[in-house]
Amino acid sequence: MGRHEDSGALSESTFYILLSLHEPMHGYAIMQNVQVLTNGRITIGAGTLYGALTALAEKNWIRALNEHISGRRKEYVITEQGKDAFLNEVDRLSRLIADAKTVTRGN
């Protein structure tokens, strides 16, 4: 069926990681924040989280804040490029919901 070459769709975990990083957070705080935001529906394990953080950093969607401060947990924050990607996903999801409402309401 019709599918764009690269839809740009984010996984739920990546979506909530980026959402969490609109404020600086370290890894464990991100895991806790995702659980709170989703009322426990999504639990991100350490392996998944740190794999995602590495991938997001490689895309320049997030950056480490205190990388060189010894004895402190590394905090991350979303970049402008990451905010753009996140907002594109919010727009994509909004269009999906609008389409679903149109069909299910018979409009």
Describe this structure in words.
This protein has a single domain (12-100), classed as Arc Repressor Mutant, subunit A (Orthogonal Bundle), CATH 1.10.10.10. A three-stranded antiparallel sheet has the order 1-3-2. The chain is mainly alpha-helical and 107 residues long. The two termini are 24 Å apart. Helix content is 54%, strand content 8%.
SSE arrangement:
Elements: H1 12-20, E1 25-26, H2 27-37, H3 46-58, E2 62-64, E3 75-78, H4 80-104
Antiparallel strand pairs: 1-3, 2-3
Helix pairs in contact: 1-2
How much β-strand is present in the residues?
Answer: 5-15%
Q: What is the CA-atom radius of gyration, in angstroms?
A: 16 Å
- Oligomeric state: single chain
Shape: globular
SS element count, helices: 4
Span between termini: 24 Å
Largest sheet: 3 strands, antiparallel
How many domains? The number is 1
**Content-based structural category:** mainly alpha
Unreliable segments (pLDDT under 50, ≥5 consecutive)? 1-5
CATH class: Mainly Alpha
- For the largest sheet, list the strands in their spatial order: 1-3-2
The CATH homologous superfamily = Winged helix-like DNA-binding domain superfamily/Winged helix DNA-binding domain
The proportion of residues forming helix, as a percent range, comes to: 40-55%
**CATH fold field value:** Arc Repressor Mutant, subunit A
Strand segment count: 3
